[in-house]
Automatic annotation (TrEMBL):
Region feature (Disordered): 1-41, 184-208
Protein origin, superkingdom: Bacteria
Pfam families: HicB
Name of the protein this chain belongs to: HicB family protein
InterPro entries the UniProt entry points to: Uncharacterised_HicB
Species of the source: Roseimaritima multifibrata
Polar residues composition bias: residue spans: 1-27
Length: 208
């Protein structure tokens, strides 16, 4: 994975340093309580971010991402909410970099590295559950035993779970040359019953 190196002043800060220097307990607790109360009511929680400045060139757009990330950081202690607003499909990053080529270029910048540091700071202090804000989805990844064992060791070295380690890795950009080309049809698990169960399901009556 191609992880850009952060520039100063953020390069001298760990995730916990960034959080402690940029966020007071009062700033984090109030928005979190508000988010949780609205989540219970079924509404989609959104941050009140300022509008994106139009007509920016690429360097300015990278700085704009950081400006809005700092606004988001001040409003929430929920990493899922921060991720959705900043890096989700309809988030700030993809609004500012709608073209894949431009987005890949942004992922190599110091500003993107700083965005990941802010994300890590939010994740480090978020003790809530993901499904408080939106449904959780699951994916099944086939990997060799040796790779699974290596991930277990790596997670232990970082003092975290395999699940959090995987999320951390998925947040990192990856260069196209490190993605193997697919030969033939892309494989993937289809939804619903698999294998013999699928054939049984096909033979069930449909008028019940």
């Amino acid at each position: 994975m191609n992880t850009p190196q952060p520039s100063t002043p953020f390069s001298m800060l760990s995730a916990s340093d960034y959080s402690s220097q940029n966020k007071s307990p009062e700033a984090s607790q109030a928005p979190v309580a508000e988010a949780e109360s609205r989540a219970e009511g079924g509404a989609v929680e959104r941050l009140q971010l300022p509008p994106i400045t139009p007509g920016l060139h690429p360097q300015q757009r990278a700085d704009e991402v950081l400006r809005l990330a700092q606004e988001a950081f001040a409003q929430t202690g929920k990493w899922v909410l921060f991720y959705r607003e900043m890096m989700g499909v309809d988030g700030v990053v993809r609004q500012l970099f709608p073209e894949a080529e431009d987005l890949r270029a942004f992922e190599t910048t110091p500003q993107f590295a700083q965005l990941l540091e802010i994300m890590t700071a939010v994740r480090a202090h978020d003790s809530g559950k993901v499904d408080e804000l939106e449904p959780q989805k699951m994916i099944t990844v086939r990997l060799p035993k040796s790779q699974h064992e290596a991930m277990k060791v790596e997670a232990k070295e970082h003092g975290t779970s395999i699940n959090k380690l995987c999320i951390s890795k998925l947040l990192l950009p990856i260069r196209a040359e490190f993605v193997p080309a697919e030969k033939g049809k892309v494989r993937g698990r289809k939804p619903g019953p698999q294998g013999p169960l699928n054939r049984v399901a096909e033979n069930l009556p449909t008028d019940v």
